[in-house]
Design a protein that fits this description.
Shape: elongated
Number of strands: 36
Oligomer: single chain
Structural class: alpha+beta
């Protein structure tokens, strides 16, 4: 299996400063998937890089981001986790959990039809994960064996939640995404879909697991799609004689053409599935299908690889189909009452999502009604009755009707006596076996929260044998029993095994690195990791911008449970410092006051004259008030004192004229009248013919 292409320019590069691409897994029409190492958390991830024509579509990226966030909120042991989503330049990417192993498709290729016990055991975790998704409001819309991942350690996960929806809603290629072999009738017809559409796909997949083949086939995808709409899925027992009627009913319940006749969601299906598993006999569960093949060892590897490069497949082989995309629009060709359409198949990329540009496609509705149950007397009812009679004849053929040797009467009498004695012994043994022995019924005791030793002792006392398996549990302490299978209170035969689920404690997950991120980014990271936001504290910081996370508790990398609250300390930015008012102070005193407040001083290079401020004192400052941060600068303007003005002589001139001229020069004027100043003539002036400070008072003596 080729995984790495040395010619790929992204191999060996670092995406978004975090994901180091190690090798290429597969590629297709929409994206390329790589194995990458998350250098921050030191783990391998599956990195899906979208092709440039999609990465440049803002509407598509916005929709994909919303769907990825919705899928990331779903944390379930049977669902592949969406870990991250982002853009690095023009490279848009999606980060998913990397599952090393194989797919359900690999199992079907190796084994063909599966015994009911194995088929139901494999489908159970798929339905459980699907039920959790439906409860969270998520649809899958591309259920198929390629998207069921089986890890090397036995974990089973369902991949690619929300991705088909994101693509089909946001692109404009005029295509419907999906795998035609598993598409529900309403999706084929372009009608609204819900959780019951996923249930239909699960039913088709279960049919294939039980019989080794899909219910519908055709030379082109449109033929298969047409059968989904116009035909009913047959009972699996038609291909696997002896299959329990309950399994037939389960498959046909899931694959009803009318969505109202299917289970409402994955949770409803899971309840019925487990009820059937508990109530079928060992013979019914271990029935070997006639077409079963010897197991071929599976090659361990990434669950979603496939053969590596792009492929085109015929319908039914697991390829995600694009119906009517772009220039290959769906074409309808008249041919009686059965239109045929041409569809184009896209490269498959199992497990990590469709690789083709999807969009809703519309199909013509057929007026043929959904097949009803067989009408008594019809050919269909007669065929069903014939199958029942064939099975009765087969059982009758295995029962002897006459002895090959007649023998004599005495010997026959002795033989009857021996037979009666044996029958009595068998009846007595059976009575003991089913009355007091291993076949007698017993009630499973309450075992939850008991130690393994206590639980096993209770089961031995009640006559049961038990086995244990380890599970994660958030509520039950490590080493204690979480539950039993069958559950407490159920009545079973004592020879039937009882399995104890023993707690390993809560499953722990590493906390993401939040320091240095904005508060909104930190909230998004916590949400994606399944953690809760705790208390938010604020503090001043001289270097970190406001809104930046300075610290987190618990710290990053610490293993904690999902839902653990994480407290954050967020920067309020540099602490504000009030600007002191130093106007009127001498320059030296003003500088000391400003520097004591943690601010810097700048002195304007040119002092100014000021009649009110003494020389050497501060005339003005910038800013005059308000707040600055530490290290902010206050600019001071220093006074040169009042300006000196030459006082001219006005002796002998009229007082009014002299007063007016002196005031225009900026002086104040004082008039002393002698003898009433009858003549209005300046007799004397003080000072006169000298330079004095602007605004000084000039005294005029007037006669």
């Amino acid at each position: 299996m080729v995984q790495e292409y040395s010619s790929d320019p992204l191999v060996g590069t670092l995406v978004d400063g975090r994901y180091l691409i190690q090798s290429r897994l597969a590629g297709g029409g929409m994206s390329t998937v790589y194995v990458a190492t998350d250098q921050r958390l030191e783990r391998d991830v599956a990195l899906k890089v979208l092709h440039p024509h999609l990465a440049g579509d803002p509407q598509f990226l916005d929709r994909l981001g919303r769907e990825a966030k919705a899928a990331a909120r779903l944390s379930h042991p049977h669902v592949v986790g969406v870990l991250d989503q982002g853009e690095d330049g023009r490279a848009a990417y999606l980060v998913m959990e990397y599952i090393k192993g194989h797919t359900l498709r690999d199992v079907l290729k190796a084994k063909g039809a599966l015994p009911p016990r194995l088929a139901l055991a494999l489908i159970d975790p798929v339905v459980e994960g699907l039920g959790a998704a439906h409860n969270a409001g998520l649809l899958h819309r591309d259920i198929k064996p390629e998207n069921v991942l089986i890890a090397d350690d036995g974990r089973i996960k369902l991949g690619d939640f929300g991705l088909a929806r994101a693509i089909s809603t946001s692109t404009s290629t005029g295509a419907l995404i999906g795998t035609v072999a598993y598409l529900s009738p309403e999706l084929v017809l372009g009608r609204p879909s819900d959780a019951r559409s996923d249930i239909y796909s699960v039913g088709i997949m279960l049919y294939e697991m039980l019989t080794g083949q899909q219910p519908f086939d055709g030379e082109v995808p449109i033929q298969v799609a047409y059968q989904h709409v116009n035909s009913a899925v047959g009972a699996p027992s038609e291909l696997v004689p002896g299959l329990a009627a309950e399994i037939d009913e389960l498959v046909q319940w899931c694959t009803a053409n009318d969505p109202d006749k299917r289970p409402v969601d994955g949770t409803a299906l899971l309840s019925e599935l487990r009820h059937i598993r508990r109530n079928l006999s060992d013979a019914e569960l271990d029935l070997q299908p006639p077409a079963a093949r010897p197991a071929i060892p599976l090659i361990a590897g990434p669950a979603t690889l496939g053969p590596g490069g792009d492929q085109h497949q015929i319908p039914g082989n697991g390829a995600t189909e694009v119906i009517g995309a772009g220039q290959h629009a769906t074409e309808f060709i008249a041919g009686g009452n059965h239109p045929t359409a041409v569809m184009s198949a896209s490269p498959r990329h199992p497990g990590y999502g469709p690789l083709s540009a999807p969009e809703e496609a519309t199909y013509p509705e057929d007026n043929n009604p959904e097949p009803e149950p067989p009408v008594p007397g019809s050919k269909r009812a007669q065929r069903k009755q014939d199958r029942v009679e064939d099975r009765s004849r087969q059982r009758a053929a295995a029962t002897p009707v006459r002895s090959l040797r007649a023998g004599n009467a005495r010997r026959r009498g002795l033989l009857w006596i021996v037979l009666l004695v044996l029958a009595a012994l068998l009846a007595g043994g059976a009575g003991w076996f089913f009355g007091m022995g291993p076949g007698s019924p017993g009630t499973i005791p309450q075992l939850k929260n008991k130690t393994v030793a206590e639980a096993q002792q209770l089961l031995r006392t009640a006559g049961f044998q038990s086995s244990t398996r380890d599970v994660f549990d958030d509520d039950v302490a490590p080493g204690l029993v979480v539950e039993s299978a069958p559950t407490a209170g159920e009545v079973i035969r004592k020879f039937q095994p009882v399995s104890l689920a023993v707690s390993k404690g809560a499953e722990l997950f590493a906390l993401p690195q939040l320091t240095g991120k904005s508060l909104e980014e930190a909230k998004t990271s916590l949400n994606g990791a399944g953690m809760a936001l705790g208390q938010i504290g604020e503090t001043y910081d001289e270097t970190a911008p406001a809104g930046t996370v300075l610290a987190q508790a618990p710290r990053s990398g610490n293993p904690v449970r999902h839902g653990t609250p994480v407290d954050l300390t967020v920067s309020k930015g540099p602490q504000p410092i009030p600007v002191p008012d130093v106007r009127g102070q001498q320059q030296g005193d003003a500088v000391k006051a400003i520097e004591a407040a943690g601010l810097k001083v700048a002195v304007a290079p040119d002092p100014v004259f000021d009649r009110a401020v003494p020389k050497g004192a501060v005339v003005s400052q910038d800013p005059p008030s308000g707040n600055l941060t530490k290290g902010g600068t206050v600019t001071l303007t220093v006074s040169k004192g009042p300006k000196l003005v030459q006082v001219p002589s006005f002796i002998g001139k009229q007082a009014a004229e002299a007063q007016k001229a002196l005031e225009q020069l900026g002086f104040k004027v004082k008039v002393d009248n002698i003898l009433g100043g009858f003549f209005g003539t300046v007799r004397a002036q003080d000072p006169v013919n000298t330079g004095v400070p602007e605004g000084s008072t000039i005294t005029l003596t007037v006669v």
